[in-house]
Design goal:
This protein has helices spanning 27-30, 32-39, 61-72, 82-96, 110-124, 150-153, 157-161, 167-179, 243-257, 264-269, 275-280, 296-302, 317-331, 333-336, 348-387, 392-423, 431-441, 473-478, 483-487, 511-518, 527-544, 572-576; strands at 5-9, 14-19, 47-52, 102-108, 134-140, 201-206, 224-227, 283-287, 310-314, 491-497, 504-510, 559-564. The protein is α/β, with parallel strands linked by helices and 577 residues long. The protein folds into 2 domains: 5-265, Alpha/Beta hydrolase fold, catalytic domain (Rossmann fold, 3-Layer(aba) Sandwich), CATH 3.40.50; 282-459, no CATH class.
């Protein structure tokens, strides 16, 4: 057994494993306080104890790698990427715990990201059954949303992975939300069981933690527990009655008492006509009659959603055709690009340089569109679970608006991709050479409408995602059923937040609604306007734009803080006047 796999107690059919954070040199010492309490807890004596060590440090990568090369005589990476550590843990988990019936994981700081990366990889590989014995995960001060300190200390791969804007943090957070959190309290329909699973997990935040502050240590949709200590002290309980330990133990006991989530294996053994399974496998689809006009029948169907079953967005054929075109450009680039004269003529060096740059732009746009599709599907599930119990009159309006905003959100990058193809007929050739190219061969270029799937739609403005900020044909088209908008299609961007102006997002509101809500009317005199606007404008846009769920103001706390013009300047007083 490797020195990095440390068994403190073994011989039972259950195990508690501890995974340290970045920079740990001696994991036993790192976890000493927690292990002292845990090993003496008579209620958990039937659990084995395992401590795992992985390569990590907080030094300059090139310097640490050089020192290790001098010592070991061979090149090595002393701080591998977090995703790679997740793959290492996968092999450790499979080898060490394959005969265990119950596994509990305790993670501190970056160790939690290692475990999340591993779980997501397992689920994406359609191997959910490998997690059948994983009963509980606890995250102590894990930077789920990144760590601010890494902005100035990102001098190795692990620190870079934890930056606030890192693609790793974004991907892990999004997939954890889609594949784990979204299934909390729900039975999974058969076709999703191998790729999705809710795992009970607990989120701890240190009240004095400046390394991973509260807003960085939270998981959207999960309760957080604020406990004593800074970043290091959160895992140093004094005794078994210390909240830092007791809250963990209570949650673990609760998870062990609960029924396991139904898996694919259970489904094979279930009766063929299980009524509950039939109910949970019901499908609810948001669909469209036109590329951006929602199908009224799908709204009627979605109104019957009660929190059980599968919800999804089914895009109109026109949108699907355009998505297929983007996918074809990504999959069959070498063939598709031959429609451009510059891709087949000229010197090999010139063609190679142009093709490399053009391919990278196609790949980037394809990736962004795929990411957006995933966000919209995931956030639609969250949206439905937030509104299914509200009054029907608000729910119907919320669904129509979500559908409109979602359509505009996906059509915008598709329009941009089509325009990108049209302009790319000459774009790779610049300067005087490009001018002569156009003069000589312009008649051989494809017409703009040969690229555009959405030529009958006004272009969606690039400044904001939707119908900002003045008379809008798109706004009239999407929200045609609202008389006040149809007659007066004028929209404003507003800063929406709680009762202070340093925590807000920008959303689009109809000018009439914005003016009314921005005035300092008392909440008692305008309850109906606040409630209807929340479900009609605020909630749909917030989720469609994928804003931070933790910043979403509640129904009884949100406000229109500021009205803006095109330049983002405050025009609240001007509008009032």
């Amino acid at each position: 057994m490797s020195k990095n796999e440390d068994w403190i107690r073994r011989g039972h059919g259950k195990v508690i494993a501890l995974i340290h954070g970045i920079g740990a040199k001696n994991p036993r010492h790192y976890w000493s306080a927690f292990l002292d309490v845990l090993s003496n807890d008579e209620t958990l004596q039937e659990f084995d104890l395992f401590v795992w060590k992985y390569p990590t440090h907080v030094n300059l990568s090139w310097w640490k790698n050089f020192i290790d090369f001098i010592k070991e005589g061979t090149p090595r990476e002393a701080a591998p990427e977090i995703k790679l550590l997740g793959e290492q843990w996968k092999n450790t988990y499979d080898a060490q715990f394959r005969d265990y019936k119950e596994v509990i994981l305790i993670c501190h700081s970056m160790g939690g990201l290692v475990i999340k990366s591993w779980v997501i990889d397992v689920l994406q590989s359609s191997q959910s059954d490998r997690l059948d014995t994983l009963c509980h995960i606890s995250f102590y001060a894990t930077p789920h949303n990144g760590a601010p300190i890494t902005t100035i200390t990102a001098w190795n791969k692990q620190l870079k992975d934890m930056q606030l804007n890192s693609s790793f943090i974004d991907d892990v957070g999004r997939h954890w939300d889609e594949r784990v959190v979204a299934w909390k309290g729900r039975d999974i329909c058969p076709e999703y069981r191998l790729n999705n699973r809710y795992i009970p997990h607990l989120v701890f935040v240190g009240v004095n933690d400046d390394v991973v502050p509260l807003y960085c240590a939270t998981i959207r949709g999960m309760e957080r527990k604020v406990i004593e200590g800074d970043h290091s002290q959160v895992i140093r309980p004094r005794d078994r009655d210390d909240t830092r330990y007791k809250a963990w133990r209570d949650d673990v006991e609760k998870a062990l008492r609960s029924e396991p989530q139904t898996t694919a294996r259970d489904k094979q053994e279930a009766p063929p006509h299980d009524a509950k399974a039939d109910q949970n496998s019901r499908k609810f689809a948001l669909s469209y009659n036109d590329h951006c006009l929602v199908d009224p029948h799908s709204i009627e169907t979605l109104l019957a959603y009660d929190g059980t079953g599968d919800v999804t967005i089914v895009w109109h054929k026109k949108v699907l055709d355009s998505l297929s075109q983007v996918h074809d450009w990504y999959d069959d680039f070498d063939k598709k690009v031959t429609i451009f004269r510059w891709a087949t003529e000229g010197s090999q060096i010139e063609r190679g340089h142009r093709l490399t740059n053009f391919r990278s732009q196609v790949n980037l746009r394809f990736t962004d569109i795929q990411k957006l599709l995933s966000e919209l599907q995931s956030n639609f599930k969250i949206f439905m679970n937030m509104i299914y119990a509200i009054d029907t009159k608000y729910k119907e309006t919320a669904l129509i608006c979500f559908a409109g905003f979602a359509a505009l959100r996906i059509i915008k990058p598709l329009q941009a991709f089509e325009q990108f193809l049209f302009q790319s007929q000459i774009a790779p050739i610049g300067g005087i050479e490009g001018w002569f190219e156009f003069r000589a061969y312009g008649e051989r270029y494809l017409a703009e409408d040969q690229f555009a799937f959405f030529a009958d739609l006004p272009p969606i403005p690039s400044t904001l995602l939707e119908i900002y900020p003045n008379s809008s044909a798109l706004g009239k088209l999407i929200f045609f059923n609202y008389i006040e908008i149809y007659d007066y299609p004028l929209f404003l961007t507003c800063r929406i937040g709680k009762n202070h102006q340093d925590d807000y997002e920008r959303l689009t509101l109809h000018i009439y609604v914005a003016k009314q809500l921005a005035r300092k009317y008392s909440r008692e005199n305008s309850d109906e306007l606040f409630i209807s606007s929340y479900y009609k404008w605020i909630l749909p846009q917030w989720l469609v734009r994928n804003y931070d769920y933790n910043k979403l103001p509640a129904l009884d706390t949100w406000r229109v803080l500021v009205l803006e013009n095109n330049e983002g300047s405050d025009i609240t007083k001007i509008i009032w006047d």
